[in-house]
Design a protein that fits this description.
Layout (H helix, E strand, L loop, with lengths): L2 E2 L5 E2 L3 E2 L24 E6 L3 H5 L1 H10 L7 E5 L3 H12 L4 E7 L2 E7 L2 E4 L7 H8 L5 E4 L20 H8 L7 H15 L5 E4 L6 H14 L3 H10 L5 E4 L7 H9 L2 E2 L4 E3 L4 E4 L16 E2 L3 H25 L5 H5 L4 H13 L11 H12 L8 H5 L2 H19 L4 H13 L17 H11 L4 H4 L2 H4 L6 H17 L1 H8 L5
Parallel strand pairs: 3-12, 4-5, 4-9, 5-8, 6-13, 9-10, 14-15
Antiparallel strand pairs: 1-2, 6-7, 11-14
Helix pairs in contact: 4-6, 6-7, 7-8, 10-12, 10-13, 10-15, 10-16, 15-16, 16-20, 16-21, 20-21
């Protein structure tokens, strides 16, 4: 029944999203113009979260809208129990996703239909292995988060002693991890005389393809050296840089989709910006993503370094300070009178000097772009989401810049303050005394380390799994010690003011 509005007009209830409902959606909603029943799979994607559906799946959808890539449809997959929840939601709506673009000038909605199935999520990954072993699957892609690659922090290689990896080595036909499942499928393909699929990381890691290659080949070598040699010769692992701010989905995002007349259990909101830069190294073919705006280049590392250092490290500059001050979103951080100039100063003085230009974009102009994107009030990207897994994000995004600055003899005062803010946040309370819920896979060890650092800041730097030899570098260790003591004694605002030259 239609809802009677205050002005006497009527409003139709939101339609549950499905293939059958597409024709009945409001004209303002863009939807697939291609015959989804005729699509054929070519990609298995592991980790079907918001970012994948708002980024990679969208690029493929745009090709399909132009009558291209009809044999490259996506089969979704996951290896964690939580992935089964997403599977249930997406299968109930025929694997369709509502994308809501949050442009400051207004919102728009589009239905993406490039995914056609979602595999069962099983402890032994049998269905996933079966699918990836099929010769029509030519790309296996992943978004499993920056910390999901089982990297040994001390060596930079695969952590062969991790219980999950050790299990996969001992039981290669019934693996626990996505990587073990990929190796099992590749083994079947080799035995059957099929070529390998391209393994494509879509996570925010510098050299993500190189990292994935190391994980897959190392795991294969631990169980089947012949398979490892075959992969080294024939398989490809393209590096890429991915970029689009995609907030987590909650009741407000579901309500926003409903405003467009769509009842979607897992809609995706996103900013009015996307970028995908890819190394053109695909051993079994690929879609022409460049026709939808992606960039194929041999300069991926330069693009990804700019993005990871300015955007991803920039997120960490903001998020811990914002969390401690109780600011809900990144846009709220950017409107704060001290956090925004703190962000700008650290970027221009301590991050941008260690970033190279890419064609048409200088580091300074990229800082301007990121500042504008982060300030978009329509993007409800929470400080909690951005601060999540700081143990991976600080080590991956912030500390490499700090090392470069130290090597160049540059200032590290701002970056030291960033690390002190993280240490203070990990104590688990905000400045007003309210509790910060566990927000890191290693929260149980970070909290006591942060509490000990309240009286002896350098105990935080003794966590060698993160800081390695940085604890012994006076220019950083002394600055960190000073800033953490200021934060605990006088508060975040006082520390920011002092850094900006406004306080004592």
């Amino acid at each position: 029944m239609d809802e009677l509005m205050a002005d006497g007009s009527t409003k139709r209830p939101a339609l549950p999203l499905s293939e059958a409902a597409l024709a009945a959606l409001p004209d303002s909603v863009q939807r697939p113009t291609y015959d989804r029943s005729a699509l054929r799979p070519g990609i298995v994607h592991i980790g079907v979260g918001n970012f994948h559906r708002g980024h990679q799946a969208w690029y493929l959808h745009r090709l399909m809208q132009g009558g291209l890539a009809q044999d490259w449809a996506i089969i979704g997959a996951g290896v964690r129990p939580g992935d089964a929840v997403m599977r249930e939601k997406l299968l109930a709506q025929d694997c369709l996703t509502t994308l809501v673009e949050l442009d400051p000038s207004g919102t728009s909605a589009e239905i993406v239909g490039s995914m056609i199935d979602f595999l069962p999520v099983e402890a032994n990954n049998a269905a996933l292995i079966d699918a990836m072993a099929r010769p029509d699957i030519r790309i296996v892609a992943l978004t499993v988060t920056e910390g999901g690659y089982y990297i040994d922090a001390a060596t930079g290689g695969l952590d062969l002693k991790h219980p999950d990896i050790a299990h996969d080595i001992a039981h290669p036909t019934v693996p626990r991890t996505a990587f073990g499942a990929m190796v099992a499928a590749l083994s079947r393909r080799m035995a059957a005389g099929h070529g390998p699929f391209t393994s494509q990381s879509c996570d925010n890691l510098q050299g993500n393809g190189d990292i994935l290659r190391n994980v897959i080949v190392s795991l294969a070598r631990a169980t089947d050296p012949d398979l490892a040699d075959w992969l080294t010769t024939h398989a490809t692992f393209p590096n890429s840089m991915v970029d689009c701010i995609v907030p987590a989905t909650g009741p407000s995002e579901i309500a926003l989709a409903a405003q467009f007349g769509i009842a979607d259990a897992a809609p995706v909101t996103h900013e009015d910006f996307r970028q995908w830069v890819i190394e053109d190294a695909f051993c079994a073919g690929r879609p022409d993503w460049d026709l939808a705006g992606a960039i194929f280049t041999d300069q991926v590392h330069a693009y990804e370094a700019m993005k990871i250092r300015i955007l991803n490290a920039g997120h960490q500059v903001l998020a811990n300070a914002g969390e401690l001050l109780g600011l809900e979103t990144i846009a709220d951080c950017m409107s704060h009178p001290q956090i925004r100039p703190f962000f700008r100063t650290v970027q221009m003085e301590e991050i941008a000097p260690y970033v190279s230009e890419v064609p048409g974009v200088t580091p300074a102009s990229y800082v301007d772009l990121i500042e504008t994107r982060f300030s978009n009030p329509a993007i409800r990207d929470t400080t909690r989401r951005v601060a999540f897994d700081g143990s991976s994000r600080h080590t991956g995004f912030v500390l490499p810049i700090l090392r470069d600055a130290l090597a160049a003899g540059g200032s590290v005062e701002g970056l030291s303050l960033v690390e002190a803010l993280w240490a203070r946040m990990c104590a688990g309370t905000r400045q007003d005394g309210s509790r910060i819920e566990a927000n890191d896979p290693h929260w149980d060890t970070l909290v006591p380390a942060a509490e000990a650092a309240k009286t002896d800041p350098r105990t935080w730097l003794a966590q060698s799994q993160y800081y390695q030899d940085l604890a012994d570098v006076p220019a950083f260790a002394t600055s960190f010690d000073t800033w953490l003591r200021v934060i605990w004694a006088d508060g975040v605002d006082a520390a920011l003011s002092r850094y900006l030259g406004k306080g004592a």
